[in-house]
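Holo prediction. Input below; ligand is flavin mononucleotide.
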Amino acid sequence: MKIIVLSGSPKAEKSVTLQSVKYIEHHYPEHYFEYVHIARNIKKYEANEEELKLLGQKIQDSDGVIWAFPVYYTTVPSTYKRFIELVSEKCHSCFKNKYTAVFSTSIHYADNIAHDFMRATCEDLNMKYTDYLSHDMHDLLQSKMQQNLKDFFANFITSIKEGLKVSKMFAPLKNNDFTYQGEAVAEKITTEKQVIIITDALDSDYNLLEMINTYSSCFGQPPEVINLNDLDIKGPCLGCCRCAANNICAYHDQDGYREFLDYVIVKADIIIYAGAIRGRHLSALFKLYYDRSFCYTHIPFLTGKHLGYMISGNLSDNQTLRQSLEMFNRGNINLIGFVSDESQDSSEIDRQIYSLARKGVVFAEKNYFKPDDFIGLSSEKLFADAIRGSLGGIFTADYRYYRKNGLLTKVSWGEKLQGALMRYLMGRKAFRKAVQKNMINHMISGHKKVLSSLKGEE
Ligand SMILES: Cc1cc2nc3c(=O)[nH]c(=O)nc-3n(C[C@H](O)[C@H](O)[C@H](O)COP(=O)(O)O)c2cc1C
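Structure of the complex:
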Protein backbone atom coordinates (compact mmCIF):
# COMPACT_ATOMS: atom_id res chain seq x y z
CA MET A 1 0.00 0.00 0.00
CA LYS A 2 1.05 3.58 -0.53
CA ILE A 3 1.23 5.62 2.68
CA ILE A 4 1.82 9.37 2.75
CA VAL A 5 3.43 10.62 5.95
CA LEU A 6 2.74 14.28 6.68
CA SER A 7 5.64 15.07 8.94
CA GLY A 8 5.14 18.08 11.21
CA SER A 9 8.49 18.54 12.89
CA PRO A 10 10.65 21.53 11.95
CA LYS A 11 13.60 19.16 12.36
CA ALA A 12 12.57 17.22 9.22
CA GLU A 13 14.78 14.11 8.88
CA LYS A 14 16.16 14.65 12.38
CA SER A 15 12.74 14.65 13.98
CA VAL A 16 12.26 12.36 16.98
CA THR A 17 8.75 11.59 15.73
CA LEU A 18 9.98 10.63 12.29
CA GLN A 19 12.38 8.03 13.72
CA SER A 20 9.37 6.07 14.99
CA VAL A 21 7.66 6.20 11.59
CA LYS A 22 10.92 5.03 9.99
CA TYR A 23 10.90 2.18 12.47
CA ILE A 24 7.46 1.19 11.25
CA GLU A 25 8.56 1.50 7.62
CA HIS A 26 11.50 -0.80 8.26
CA HIS A 27 9.20 -3.49 9.63
CA TYR A 28 6.71 -3.30 6.79
CA PRO A 29 8.79 -3.39 3.58
CA GLU A 30 5.75 -4.52 1.63
CA HIS A 31 4.29 -1.01 1.99
CA TYR A 32 5.57 2.12 0.28
CA PHE A 33 6.11 5.22 2.46
CA GLU A 34 6.42 8.75 1.11
CA TYR A 35 7.43 11.55 3.48
CA VAL A 36 6.33 15.16 3.15
CA HIS A 37 8.12 17.64 5.40
CA ILE A 38 5.49 20.26 6.06
CA ALA A 39 7.57 22.81 8.03
CA ARG A 40 10.35 22.82 5.43
CA ASN A 41 7.86 23.28 2.59
CA ILE A 42 5.31 25.59 4.13
CA LYS A 43 6.51 28.69 2.26
CA LYS A 44 6.29 26.76 -1.00
CA TYR A 45 2.70 25.70 -0.26
CA GLU A 46 1.77 29.22 0.81
CA ALA A 47 3.21 30.81 -2.30
CA ASN A 48 2.19 28.28 -4.91
CA GLU A 49 -1.24 26.74 -5.07
CA GLU A 50 0.02 24.33 -7.76
CA GLU A 51 2.39 22.73 -5.22
CA LEU A 52 -0.52 22.24 -2.87
CA LYS A 53 -2.56 20.68 -5.66
CA LEU A 54 0.30 18.31 -6.53
CA LEU A 55 0.40 17.19 -2.92
CA GLY A 56 -3.38 16.87 -2.97
CA GLN A 57 -3.06 14.59 -6.00
CA LYS A 58 -0.50 12.42 -4.16
CA ILE A 59 -2.89 12.13 -1.26
CA GLN A 60 -5.71 11.14 -3.57
CA ASP A 61 -3.51 8.47 -5.14
CA SER A 62 -2.46 7.06 -1.78
CA ASP A 63 -4.12 4.35 0.30
CA GLY A 64 -3.67 6.11 3.61
CA VAL A 65 -2.26 9.17 5.32
CA ILE A 66 -0.31 9.31 8.58
CA TRP A 67 -0.16 12.65 10.34
CA ALA A 68 3.08 12.53 12.35
CA PHE A 69 4.01 15.54 14.47
CA PRO A 70 5.52 16.70 17.75
CA VAL A 71 3.04 18.17 20.23
CA TYR A 72 3.74 21.91 20.46
CA TYR A 73 1.92 23.96 23.06
CA THR A 74 -1.02 21.57 23.43
CA THR A 75 -1.58 21.16 19.69
CA VAL A 76 0.64 21.08 16.61
CA PRO A 77 3.54 23.30 15.46
CA SER A 78 2.51 26.60 13.88
CA THR A 79 3.63 25.52 10.40
CA TYR A 80 1.49 22.37 10.62
CA LYS A 81 -1.43 24.55 11.67
CA ARG A 82 -0.77 26.79 8.67
CA PHE A 83 -0.71 23.74 6.43
CA ILE A 84 -4.07 22.63 7.80
CA GLU A 85 -5.47 26.12 7.12
CA LEU A 86 -4.18 25.99 3.53
CA VAL A 87 -5.50 22.54 2.69
CA SER A 88 -8.84 23.23 4.37
CA GLU A 89 -9.20 26.29 2.18
CA LYS A 90 -7.67 25.12 -1.07
CA CYS A 91 -7.71 21.34 -1.48
CA HIS A 92 -10.19 20.09 1.07
CA SER A 93 -11.62 17.51 -1.32
CA CYS A 94 -8.27 15.69 -1.82
CA PHE A 95 -8.47 14.33 1.71
CA LYS A 96 -12.06 13.14 1.42
CA ASN A 97 -12.59 9.48 2.35
CA LYS A 98 -8.86 8.82 2.84
CA TYR A 99 -8.07 6.49 5.70
CA THR A 100 -5.89 8.23 8.25
CA ALA A 101 -4.07 7.62 11.52
CA VAL A 102 -2.37 10.17 13.77
CA PHE A 103 0.94 9.73 15.56
CA SER A 104 2.76 12.13 17.87
CA THR A 105 5.68 12.29 20.23
CA SER A 106 5.83 14.60 23.24
CA ILE A 107 6.35 14.47 26.98
CA HIS A 108 2.60 13.79 27.28
CA TYR A 109 1.71 17.30 28.36
CA ALA A 110 -1.77 17.99 26.91
CA ASP A 111 -1.16 15.42 24.18
CA ASN A 112 -4.83 14.44 24.55
CA ILE A 113 -5.84 17.94 23.41
CA ALA A 114 -3.46 17.76 20.44
CA HIS A 115 -5.04 14.47 19.41
CA ASP A 116 -8.56 15.82 19.81
CA PHE A 117 -7.52 18.75 17.64
CA MET A 118 -6.14 16.41 14.97
CA ARG A 119 -9.13 14.09 15.07
CA ALA A 120 -11.52 17.01 14.67
CA THR A 121 -9.39 18.33 11.81
CA CYS A 122 -9.39 14.96 10.04
CA GLU A 123 -13.16 14.77 10.46
CA ASP A 124 -13.54 18.29 9.05
CA LEU A 125 -11.54 17.11 6.02
CA ASN A 126 -13.96 14.16 5.73
CA MET A 127 -11.13 11.69 6.24
CA LYS A 128 -11.67 8.22 7.67
CA TYR A 129 -10.00 8.64 11.02
CA THR A 130 -9.00 5.24 12.38
CA ASP A 131 -6.90 5.83 15.49
CA TYR A 132 -4.10 7.76 17.19
CA LEU A 133 -0.93 6.87 19.03
CA SER A 134 0.77 9.27 21.42
CA HIS A 135 4.30 8.26 22.38
CA ASP A 136 6.70 9.79 24.83
CA MET A 137 9.71 11.13 22.96
CA HIS A 138 11.87 8.27 24.29
CA ASP A 139 9.40 5.43 23.80
CA LEU A 140 11.13 4.09 20.71
CA LEU A 141 13.96 2.96 22.98
CA GLN A 142 11.72 0.40 24.69
CA SER A 143 10.93 -2.93 23.08
CA LYS A 144 7.36 -2.84 24.43
CA MET A 145 6.74 0.47 22.68
CA GLN A 146 8.40 -0.75 19.49
CA GLN A 147 5.83 -3.53 19.41
CA ASN A 148 3.17 -0.91 20.15
CA LEU A 149 4.23 1.03 17.05
CA LYS A 150 4.08 -2.08 14.87
CA ASP A 151 0.63 -2.97 16.19
CA PHE A 152 -0.62 0.56 15.63
CA PHE A 153 0.41 0.42 11.99
CA ALA A 154 -0.90 -3.12 11.51
CA ASN A 155 -4.29 -1.98 12.84
CA PHE A 156 -4.24 0.95 10.42
CA ILE A 157 -3.58 -1.38 7.49
CA THR A 158 -6.38 -3.70 8.64
CA SER A 159 -8.81 -0.78 8.66
CA ILE A 160 -7.82 0.16 5.11
CA LYS A 161 -7.78 -3.39 3.73
CA GLU A 162 -11.08 -4.40 5.24
CA GLY A 163 -12.69 -1.00 4.70
CA LEU A 164 -13.63 -0.80 8.36
CA LYS A 165 -16.27 1.74 9.24
CA VAL A 166 -15.20 4.78 11.28
CA SER A 167 -17.28 6.96 13.54
CA LYS A 168 -17.24 10.73 14.01
CA MET A 169 -16.60 12.31 17.39
CA PHE A 170 -16.85 16.03 16.66
CA ALA A 171 -19.79 18.05 15.41
CA PRO A 172 -18.97 19.91 12.19
CA LEU A 173 -17.98 23.57 12.44
CA LYS A 174 -20.73 26.10 11.81
CA ASN A 175 -20.25 29.36 9.98
CA ASN A 176 -20.93 32.58 11.81
CA ASP A 177 -21.74 35.37 9.36
CA PHE A 178 -23.13 37.72 11.98
CA THR A 179 -21.75 41.26 12.02
CA TYR A 180 -21.10 42.64 15.47
CA GLN A 181 -21.76 46.33 15.94
CA GLY A 182 -20.26 47.37 19.25
CA GLU A 183 -21.17 50.45 21.21
CA ALA A 184 -18.60 52.40 23.18
CA VAL A 185 -19.09 51.89 26.89
CA ALA A 186 -20.13 55.08 28.70
CA GLU A 187 -19.07 54.15 32.24
CA LYS A 188 -15.27 54.05 32.25
CA ILE A 189 -13.12 51.80 34.42
CA THR A 190 -10.18 53.54 36.01
CA THR A 191 -7.24 51.52 37.26
CA GLU A 192 -3.53 51.66 37.78
CA LYS A 193 -3.27 48.12 36.41
CA GLN A 194 -1.73 47.73 32.97
CA VAL A 195 -3.75 45.98 30.28
CA ILE A 196 -2.24 44.73 27.03
CA ILE A 197 -4.30 43.27 24.20
CA ILE A 198 -2.47 40.84 21.94
CA THR A 199 -4.21 40.18 18.66
CA ASP A 200 -3.65 38.84 15.16
CA ALA A 201 -6.62 40.76 13.71
CA LEU A 202 -6.51 41.51 10.01
CA ASP A 203 -8.54 44.29 8.40
CA SER A 204 -11.02 41.62 7.31
CA ASP A 205 -11.60 40.50 10.95
CA TYR A 206 -14.37 43.03 11.39
CA ASN A 207 -15.96 41.49 14.50
CA LEU A 208 -12.66 40.98 16.24
CA LEU A 209 -11.57 44.57 15.63
CA GLU A 210 -14.95 45.75 16.87
CA MET A 211 -14.58 43.61 20.02
CA ILE A 212 -11.17 45.17 20.66
CA ASN A 213 -12.71 48.65 20.23
CA THR A 214 -15.49 47.89 22.68
CA TYR A 215 -13.04 46.46 25.21
CA SER A 216 -10.77 49.50 24.85
CA SER A 217 -13.74 51.83 25.30
CA CYS A 218 -14.32 50.37 28.78
CA PHE A 219 -11.25 52.20 30.10
CA GLY A 220 -10.58 55.88 30.75
CA GLN A 221 -7.06 55.17 29.55
CA PRO A 222 -7.38 52.77 26.57
CA PRO A 223 -5.16 49.68 26.81
CA GLU A 224 -2.23 49.07 24.53
CA VAL A 225 -2.99 46.86 21.53
CA ILE A 226 -0.16 44.81 20.02
CA ASN A 227 -0.89 43.20 16.68
CA LEU A 228 1.24 40.13 15.96
CA ASN A 229 1.14 41.05 12.26
CA ASP A 230 3.13 44.21 13.02
CA LEU A 231 5.97 42.44 14.80
CA ASP A 232 9.28 41.53 13.27
CA ILE A 233 9.17 37.73 13.67
CA LYS A 234 11.64 35.89 11.46
CA GLY A 235 10.14 32.44 11.64
CA PRO A 236 8.63 29.58 13.62
CA CYS A 237 10.19 27.72 16.53
CA LEU A 238 12.92 25.47 15.10
CA GLY A 239 12.60 22.87 17.84
CA CYS A 240 16.39 23.04 18.28
CA CYS A 241 16.15 23.51 22.08
CA ARG A 242 19.14 25.83 22.03
CA CYS A 243 17.16 27.74 24.66
CA ALA A 244 17.43 24.86 27.15
CA ALA A 245 20.49 26.06 29.06
CA ASN A 246 19.94 29.81 29.32
CA ASN A 247 16.60 30.63 27.73
CA ILE A 248 18.35 32.19 24.78
CA CYS A 249 16.63 31.35 21.50
CA ALA A 250 18.42 30.55 18.22
CA TYR A 251 16.77 33.69 16.79
CA HIS A 252 18.27 35.80 19.60
CA ASP A 253 18.87 39.36 18.40
CA GLN A 254 17.71 38.39 14.91
CA ASP A 255 14.12 39.49 15.29
CA GLY A 256 11.80 41.39 17.57
CA TYR A 257 9.98 38.46 19.21
CA ARG A 258 11.89 38.28 22.47
CA GLU A 259 11.86 42.05 22.97
CA PHE A 260 8.08 42.03 22.49
CA LEU A 261 7.54 39.10 24.85
CA ASP A 262 9.75 40.55 27.57
CA TYR A 263 7.98 43.90 27.22
CA VAL A 264 4.62 42.17 27.83
CA ILE A 265 6.06 40.21 30.77
CA VAL A 266 7.38 43.35 32.44
CA LYS A 267 4.49 45.67 31.66
CA ALA A 268 1.19 43.78 31.72
CA ASP A 269 -0.92 42.88 34.72
CA ILE A 270 -3.79 41.81 32.49
CA ILE A 271 -3.35 40.25 29.05
CA ILE A 272 -6.30 39.96 26.70
CA TYR A 273 -5.78 37.66 23.74
CA ALA A 274 -8.05 38.61 20.86
CA GLY A 275 -8.19 36.14 17.99
CA ALA A 276 -10.54 34.69 15.43
CA ILE A 277 -11.16 30.95 15.21
CA ARG A 278 -9.51 29.45 12.14
CA GLY A 279 -10.56 25.84 11.80
CA ARG A 280 -10.22 24.19 15.20
CA HIS A 281 -7.88 26.73 16.83
CA LEU A 282 -6.73 30.32 16.61
CA SER A 283 -4.62 31.25 13.58
CA ALA A 284 -1.22 29.79 12.72
CA LEU A 285 0.21 33.21 13.60
CA PHE A 286 -1.21 32.98 17.10
CA LYS A 287 0.25 29.46 17.28
CA LEU A 288 3.60 30.87 16.27
CA TYR A 289 3.36 33.37 19.14
CA TYR A 290 2.87 30.45 21.56
CA ASP A 291 5.53 28.24 20.00
CA ARG A 292 8.20 30.92 20.04
CA SER A 293 7.54 31.53 23.74
CA PHE A 294 9.34 28.21 24.21
CA CYS A 295 12.42 30.43 24.58
CA TYR A 296 11.28 30.33 28.24
CA THR A 297 11.21 26.53 28.00
CA HIS A 298 9.03 25.12 30.83
CA ILE A 299 9.19 28.21 33.03
CA PRO A 300 5.73 29.73 33.65
CA PHE A 301 6.83 33.11 32.34
CA LEU A 302 3.39 34.72 32.72
CA THR A 303 3.28 34.13 36.48
CA GLY A 304 1.27 36.83 38.21
CA LYS A 305 -0.74 37.75 35.09
CA HIS A 306 -4.49 37.62 34.56
CA LEU A 307 -5.48 36.29 31.13
CA GLY A 308 -8.72 36.85 29.25
CA TYR A 309 -9.81 35.87 25.76
CA MET A 310 -11.94 37.61 23.16
CA ILE A 311 -12.67 35.13 20.43
CA SER A 312 -14.48 35.74 17.19
CA GLY A 313 -16.23 32.50 16.21
CA ASN A 314 -18.35 29.77 17.74
CA LEU A 315 -16.26 28.96 20.77
CA SER A 316 -18.80 26.65 22.38
CA ASP A 317 -18.61 24.38 19.28
CA ASN A 318 -14.87 24.26 19.76
CA GLN A 319 -14.18 22.87 23.22
CA THR A 320 -10.73 21.68 22.14
CA LEU A 321 -9.68 25.28 21.59
CA ARG A 322 -11.02 26.36 24.98
CA GLN A 323 -9.23 23.46 26.68
CA SER A 324 -6.03 24.25 24.86
CA LEU A 325 -6.13 27.90 25.96
CA GLU A 326 -7.06 27.00 29.53
CA MET A 327 -3.91 24.88 29.79
CA PHE A 328 -1.93 28.12 30.06
CA ASN A 329 -3.59 28.94 33.37
CA ARG A 330 -1.55 27.18 35.98
CA GLY A 331 0.40 28.28 39.01
CA ASN A 332 -0.14 31.97 39.49
CA ILE A 333 -1.50 32.56 36.01
CA ASN A 334 -5.15 33.42 36.36
CA LEU A 335 -7.99 32.91 33.93
CA ILE A 336 -10.43 35.83 33.78
CA GLY A 337 -12.71 34.23 31.19
CA PHE A 338 -13.77 34.02 27.56
CA VAL A 339 -16.02 36.21 25.45
CA SER A 340 -17.04 35.35 21.93
CA ASP A 341 -19.37 36.84 19.33
CA GLU A 342 -21.37 33.65 18.98
CA SER A 343 -24.46 34.96 20.78
CA GLN A 344 -25.02 37.04 17.61
CA ASP A 345 -26.46 39.80 19.76
CA SER A 346 -24.41 43.00 19.74
CA SER A 347 -25.65 44.47 23.02
CA GLU A 348 -25.16 41.11 24.76
CA ILE A 349 -21.57 41.00 23.46
CA ASP A 350 -21.02 44.61 24.63
CA ARG A 351 -22.07 43.60 28.14
CA GLN A 352 -19.95 40.45 28.13
CA ILE A 353 -16.92 42.46 27.05
CA TYR A 354 -17.52 45.04 29.79
CA SER A 355 -17.75 42.21 32.34
CA LEU A 356 -14.47 40.73 31.09
CA ALA A 357 -12.81 44.13 31.46
CA ARG A 358 -14.29 44.76 34.89
CA LYS A 359 -13.53 41.26 36.22
CA GLY A 360 -9.92 41.44 35.05
CA VAL A 361 -9.40 44.71 36.91
CA VAL A 362 -11.11 43.42 40.07
CA PHE A 363 -8.95 40.27 40.00
CA ALA A 364 -5.75 42.21 39.41
CA GLU A 365 -6.46 44.89 42.03
CA LYS A 366 -7.41 42.32 44.67
CA ASN A 367 -4.50 40.10 43.65
CA TYR A 368 -7.06 37.31 43.37
CA PHE A 369 -5.65 34.07 41.98
CA LYS A 370 -7.61 30.86 41.67
CA PRO A 371 -5.73 27.86 43.02
CA ASP A 372 -4.77 25.12 40.59
CA ASP A 373 -7.46 22.61 39.62
CA PHE A 374 -6.71 19.16 38.21
CA ILE A 375 -5.27 20.63 35.01
CA GLY A 376 -2.91 22.97 36.86
CA LEU A 377 -1.87 20.42 39.46
CA SER A 378 -1.26 17.62 36.98
CA SER A 379 0.71 20.01 34.74
CA GLU A 380 2.89 21.09 37.66
CA LYS A 381 3.53 17.50 38.65
CA LEU A 382 4.33 16.38 35.13
CA PHE A 383 6.84 19.20 34.66
CA ALA A 384 8.30 18.82 38.16
CA ASP A 385 8.92 15.10 37.58
CA ALA A 386 10.39 15.60 34.12
CA ILE A 387 12.67 18.41 35.24
CA ARG A 388 13.78 16.54 38.34
CA GLY A 389 14.52 13.64 35.98
CA SER A 390 16.41 13.50 32.71
CA LEU A 391 14.76 16.57 31.12
CA GLY A 392 16.32 18.78 33.81
CA GLY A 393 19.74 17.51 32.78
CA ILE A 394 19.36 19.31 29.46
CA PHE A 395 16.88 22.02 30.38
CA THR A 396 19.15 23.41 33.06
CA ALA A 397 17.45 26.82 33.05
CA ASP A 398 14.21 25.02 34.03
CA TYR A 399 16.01 23.07 36.73
CA ARG A 400 17.41 26.24 38.30
CA TYR A 401 14.01 27.94 38.18
CA TYR A 402 12.06 24.97 39.57
CA ARG A 403 14.59 24.43 42.37
CA LYS A 404 14.68 28.13 43.32
CA ASN A 405 10.88 28.33 43.42
CA GLY A 406 10.37 25.09 45.34
CA LEU A 407 8.56 23.47 42.41
CA LEU A 408 10.60 20.29 42.18
CA THR A 409 9.27 18.55 45.27
CA LYS A 410 5.91 19.33 46.70
CA VAL A 411 5.88 16.74 49.54
CA SER A 412 7.52 18.15 52.70
CA TRP A 413 9.51 15.94 55.09
CA GLY A 414 6.78 16.48 57.69
CA GLU A 415 4.14 15.12 55.30
CA LYS A 416 6.33 12.17 54.32
CA LEU A 417 6.93 11.31 57.98
CA GLN A 418 3.23 11.60 58.76
CA GLY A 419 2.44 9.26 55.83
CA ALA A 420 5.02 6.70 56.95
CA LEU A 421 3.77 6.78 60.55
CA MET A 422 0.14 6.38 59.46
CA ARG A 423 1.02 3.44 57.19
CA TYR A 424 2.82 1.80 60.10
CA LEU A 425 -0.11 2.32 62.48
CA MET A 426 -2.69 1.24 59.88
CA GLY A 427 -0.87 -2.09 59.73
CA ARG A 428 -2.05 -2.68 63.33
CA LYS A 429 -5.52 -4.17 63.52
CA ALA A 430 -6.85 -2.27 66.56
CA PHE A 431 -5.71 1.11 65.21
CA ARG A 432 -7.09 0.35 61.74
CA LYS A 433 -10.48 -0.63 63.19
CA ALA A 434 -10.65 2.54 65.24
CA VAL A 435 -9.80 4.69 62.21
CA GLN A 436 -12.33 2.90 60.00
CA LYS A 437 -15.04 3.38 62.59
CA ASN A 438 -14.32 7.10 62.81
CA MET A 439 -13.38 7.68 59.18
CA ILE A 440 -16.22 10.06 58.29
CA ASN A 441 -15.75 12.16 61.42
CA HIS A 442 -12.01 12.12 60.93
CA MET A 443 -12.35 13.50 57.41
CA ILE A 444 -14.01 16.66 58.73
CA SER A 445 -12.21 16.97 62.06
CA GLY A 446 -9.96 19.80 60.83
CA HIS A 447 -12.86 21.55 59.08
CA LYS A 448 -14.92 21.38 62.28
CA LYS A 449 -12.10 23.08 64.14
CA VAL A 450 -12.17 25.95 61.62
CA LEU A 451 -15.94 26.32 62.03
CA SER A 452 -15.84 26.17 65.83
CA SER A 453 -13.08 28.81 65.85
CA LEU A 454 -15.57 31.07 63.99
CA LYS A 455 -18.03 30.69 66.87
CA GLY A 456 -15.29 31.91 69.19
CA GLU A 457 -14.94 34.98 66.93
CA GLU A 458 -18.63 35.95 67.30
C1 LIG B 1 7.93 24.81 21.00
C2 LIG B 1 7.75 23.48 21.68
C3 LIG B 1 6.56 23.22 22.32
C4 LIG B 1 6.36 21.98 22.92
N1 LIG B 1 5.16 21.75 23.52
C5 LIG B 1 4.91 20.55 24.08
C6 LIG B 1 3.65 20.29 24.69
O1 LIG B 1 2.72 21.11 24.73
N2 LIG B 1 3.47 19.06 25.25
C7 LIG B 1 4.46 18.10 25.25
O2 LIG B 1 4.23 17.05 25.81
N3 LIG B 1 5.65 18.33 24.65
C8 LIG B 1 5.91 19.52 24.07
N4 LIG B 1 7.09 19.75 23.44
C9 LIG B 1 8.07 18.63 23.33
C10 LIG B 1 8.00 17.94 21.95
O3 LIG B 1 6.68 17.54 21.65
C11 LIG B 1 8.87 16.68 21.94
O4 LIG B 1 10.18 17.02 22.24
C12 LIG B 1 8.80 15.95 20.61
O5 LIG B 1 9.21 14.63 20.80
C13 LIG B 1 9.71 16.55 19.54
O6 LIG B 1 9.55 15.80 18.36
P1 LIG B 1 10.32 16.12 17.00
O7 LIG B 1 11.79 15.87 17.24
O8 LIG B 1 9.72 15.16 16.03
O9 LIG B 1 10.08 17.54 16.63
C14 LIG B 1 7.36 20.97 22.88
C15 LIG B 1 8.58 21.25 22.25
C16 LIG B 1 8.78 22.49 21.65
C17 LIG B 1 10.10 22.77 20.97
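The chain has four domains: 2-161, 195-366, 374-404, 413-457. That is the main takeaway for now.
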